[in-house]
Write a sequence for this structure.
């Protein structure tokens, strides 16, 4: 897919981190961008900077997502690109024993469900609604009608202690990549997924510098945190390369996560 001003894109979680970096890279190519996020202040500011549109969207809510796509398409046209970066995480053991009184606690099911709702179901919801819109477009000269990039995590394969919900949600994103790519193949819509390692995103922004340094030192090479723009470059490679389809690609500096 050739990226230019005739192409529109929707980026979920687009107000910061991996999503913002991807939006910037797409905008540099002339692509018109719509940012889906809950953070209005950051989202509006970035949309203004890039000449795009911000849509306040909760990916766990059908009506909110539908309204977001309606606003985006009314402003920048039907998207040919969807990049799913919206996501959350938590760290809770399946069961644990209290150090104070020995009582046993279990992972609150509502907390588990919420991570699945955002990371897995939210991603699928946006894929389905975006792909339905892409089907209304004619294929481009290279044959592509659309391209979708999802965000999983190395936790899909190397889940750490306390990451049962997070790993399950991201493992689900990996697991559905190929079947969705096959579902959409006859319609010339490609689907790929990136599995980022330890990246310098807002999730780590509040961590002490020694913690950030220690996390970076765990990476074989380069021994540092990933940079959001590196994610963005891989996302654009997936979008621009028409033979890139149905793949799940780790972007992690060769790290394999230890249990904790």
């Amino acid at each position: 897919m050739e990226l230019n001003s005739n192409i529109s894109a929707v980026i979920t979680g687009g107000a910061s981190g991996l999503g913002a970096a991807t939006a910037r890279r797409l905008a540099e190519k002339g692509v018109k961008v719509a940012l889906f996020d809950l953070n209005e202040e950051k989202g509006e500011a970035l949309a203004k900077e890039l000449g795009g549109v911000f849509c306040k969207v909760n990916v766990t809510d059908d009506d909110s997502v539908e309204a977001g796509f309606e606003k985006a398409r009314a402003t920048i046209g039907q998207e040919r690109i969807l990049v799913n970066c919206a996501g959350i995480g938590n760290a809770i053991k399946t069961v644990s024993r209290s150090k104070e009184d020995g009582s046993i606690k279990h992972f609150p099911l509502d907390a588990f469900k919420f991570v699945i709702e955002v990371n897995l179901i939210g991603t699928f919801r946006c894929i389905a609604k975006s792909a339905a819109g892409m089907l209304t477009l004619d294929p481009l000269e290279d044959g592509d009608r659309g391209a979708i990039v999802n965000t999983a995590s190395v936790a899909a394969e190397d889940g750490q202690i306390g990451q049962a919900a997070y790993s399950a949600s991201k493992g689900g994103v990996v697991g559905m990549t190929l079947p969705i790519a096959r579902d959409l193949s006859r319609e010339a819509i490609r689907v790929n997924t990136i599995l980022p390692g330890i990246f310098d995103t807002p999730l780590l922004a509040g961590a002490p510098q020694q913690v950030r340094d220690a996390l970076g030192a765990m990476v074989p090479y380069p021994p540092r945190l990933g940079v959001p723009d590196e994610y963005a470059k891989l996302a654009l490679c997936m979008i621009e390369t028409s033979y890139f389809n149905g793949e799940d690609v780790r972007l992690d500096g060769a790290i394999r996560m230890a249990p904790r």
User: Anything to note?
Assistant: DSSP finds nine helices and nine strands in the chain. The chain has one domain: 8-251.
